[in-house]
Write a structure and sequence with these properties.
By secondary structure, the chain is mostly beta strands. It folds into three domains: about 1-90, no CATH class; about 90-195, no CATH class; about 205-290, Fusion Protein Consisting Of Minor Coat Protein, Glycine Rich Linker, Tola, And A His Tag, Chain: A, Domain 2 (2-Layer Sandwich), CATH 3.30.1150.10. It has four helices and 23 strands. The chain is globular and about 65 Å long. The model has no long low-confidence stretch (mean pLDDT about 90).
Length: about 300
């Protein structure tokens, strides 16, 4: 049993969790574990299969549900990657979207998506056989947040969207499904241009540099100095780059845990997550390992084989 926030971060206890994951052993003749997520009201949130216990690597069909009990999506996975034909539904239960997925590396989700049909909540077709208009909705409010035309399943021309909470509007340009460029305008009139639709938060020098910095601020107890120790840390990267809200999955010792959280929260600023050119708050997680055993030198026999 595991406990999660809606953003995917794992928690050590149920207290502040948004949902609970229960993993069951494979059925007879199968190697796949059963995965069932439950909302805190005990209604199913997700039902699927995974090739591993933690983290889950989804395989075959996976069905997700809204809090009202209606289906939200029927998705198909191979090795944890979305493949095949997939279906999304409106909150009233009517079919919203049918799409297939390419699996080209280094392409965004939107660029790999091939829209087959798009329907409004009354059942009216907006796009059929990969051609027409595609409308994207906010999952929580179901308000329109993005829309544009598709041709042969791919995004084309100008797409318009907004982040109502941030009072931001944006325009992106696509050619045959490939994102070209975009610009967004804030409520105060500030304009951002971008050539990458989204960027994950980043630390100068990368994750390795961040981990090394954190390690320099810690002093392990004598009993742990020569033992491999690993822990997973999650934290927020605010839209100004400030790091906050560090939490740990597991524990090393009360003193080390406290020092580790303090070190993470006092980190130098990161480059925040960018979405449509706009800096946004985000969650990030990283494993931190102490006393990693050094690689053994190759034996003469091994060198001879090389």
């Amino acid at each position: 049993m595991f406990y999660f926030k809606n953003d995917g971060s794992k928690l050590p206890a149920i207290d502040s969790a948004d949902f609970v994951r229960v993993v069951s052993l494979p059925d007879s003749g199968s190697t796949l574990f059963g995965i069932v997520d439950y909302y805190r009201n005990n209604k199913p949130k997700l039902m699927g299969k995974s090739s591993s216990i933690d983290p889950a690597v989804f395989e075959e069909q996976c069905v997700t549900y809204l809090p009202n009990g209606k289906r939200q999506a029927v998705l198909t996975y191979t090795g944890g990657v979305l493949t095949g034909t997939n279906y999304l539904f409106h909150p009233n239960g009517k079919l919203y979207l049918t799409f297939t997925m390419d699996t080209v590396r280094n392409r965004s989700f939107d660029e790999n998506m091939n829209v087959v049909t798009c329907m409004d909540s009354t059942g009216k077709a907006l796009a059929t056989e990969g051609n027409g208009h595609f409308v994207s909705y906010n999952e929580a409010t179901h308000a329109i947040i993005e829309e544009g035309d598709i041709k042969n399943g791919k995004r084309v021309g100008e797409w318009h969207g907004s982040y109502p909470t941030e009072k931001v509007t944006y325009t992106d340009t696509y050619t045959d499904g490939k994102f070209i460029s975009g610009y967004c305008t804030t409520g105060t009139g500030v304009k951002y241009t971008y050539t990458a639709k989204s960027q994950t938060p980043a630390f100068t020098g990368g994750n390795t540099a961040f981990i090394n910095l954190i390690k320099k601020k810690l002093k392990l107890p004598a009993a742990l100095k020569n033992k491999p120790v690993s822990i997973f840390a999650s934290f927020s990267v605010k839209n100004n780059g400030k790091v906050a809200d560090a939490t740990l999955l597991g524990s090393i010792s009360p003193e080390v845990d406290k020092a580790l959280i303090t070190a993470i929260n006092s980190s130098p600023a990161w480059t925040p997550r960018l979405q449509n050119g706009l800096p946004l708050d985000s969650s990030w997680g990283i494993p931190i390992t102490f006393n990693t055993p050094a690689a053994k030198p190759a034996t003469p026999a091994a060198k001879a084989k090389n």
